[in-house]
Please model this.
Amino acid sequence: MRFLLVEDNIQLAKAVVDRLALDGHVIDYAADLATARSFIDVTSYDLILLDIMLPDGDGRDFLATHRRNANRTPVIVLTARSQVSDRVGLLDLGADDYITKPFDFSELEARCRAVLRRQGGVANNLRHFAGVGFDSLAGTITIQENTEALRNREHRLLEIFFSTPGQIFSKTHLMDRLFSFTEDVSENAIEVYIGRLRKRLEGSTAKIETVRGLGYRLIDGS
Model:
């Protein structure tokens, strides 16, 4: 998943980025609203983590504009405000959730997972397709009762394919989902991860098919 973190506290931001990166997420970091808007103009995100008090404006105005523009990307607000009226106001503006500073990182991770599940219409973490059980929380796949742990980017790549089996994803799209603006990688990296996933899926009828000139898709090859 690709997240955008908008937070002007550099120490907190680094801690959040480092913690979420351990889960295999790609995080772009913006210290102000102008940078956040420039990022949103060139890519899409699965989740936005938004501070309220920022050097160049109020995060609530950003949130309100975000929703007026019919942008459905879920937003979790990071707020120091603890009054019920403040939290209600954030939800009414279109926030999907909020977490009060200071917060425990395990709670932040849990709230991210919950919001993403609701956004995807998924009631739990376990999905099945073509003989593969994929646990998106544990980062494991089960084939013929054999469970294996996935590496971070294998995990996130399979998450993309499992979100919509049969849909073709271009290399450019997969690059955008797996790597942040600060990472200097080539499209060949996608071929490497696709090759690893194909080996992981052996023993099932799930196949990652190359669609020449277009990209890749997950199919049932039975």
